[in-house]
Specification:
The protein is α+β, with helices and mostly antiparallel strands. It is built from three helices and seven strands, in the order E-H-E-E-E-H-E-H-E-E. Strand 2 and strand 3 form a beta hairpin. This is DUF3085 domain-containing protein.
């Protein structure tokens, strides 16, 4: 399971939308292998060096996406980040796309929630909210 503050998730979504408006749309998370799939507002859940979410709007030359690390899996501060990533995301690098509409509907149904939990299984991405 990976946990992110809802305010940070909203900022990542907003940044992706702003980048898309300024730079011609959304990036394809599948490196073009599935044309047009995932080229809508959303976030990328990335397993790489740690696990993080990032904005998906097209970037200007040399631009950087907004990145927010999972509370449990930041390579600078979590000693066992690699083991945690391998256990809950897998050993290989990868990207999972999550639509902004799905997230925003979930957030709007529970305005008191403060954090988003993302859990991956073999076949699905399960989302849940917690209040701290």
């Amino acid at each position: 399971m990976f946990t992110f503050p809802i305010l940070a998730v909203r900022k990542v979504i907003d940044r992706g939308i702003a980048d898309a408006a300024a730079n011609g749309g959304f990036r394809n998370p599948y490196y073009g292998t599935r044309p047009a799939e995932g080229e809508t507002p959303g976030i990328w859940l990335v397993g790489d060096e740690g696990v993080y979410i990032m904005s998906n709007g097209k970037l200007p030359e040399g631009g950087c996406a907004l990145v927010v690390y999972a509370e449990q899996c930041h390579p600078k501060g979590d000693i066992d980040w690699w083991d945690y990533k391998r256990r809950h995301f897998g050993g290989d690098d990868g990207i999972e796309f999550i639509e902004a509409e799905r997230l925003l509907r979930l957030f709007d149904r529970n305005m008191r929630a403060t954090h988003l939990n993302i859990q991956l299984t073999e076949t699905e991405i399960a989302l849940s909210l917690i209040t701290r």
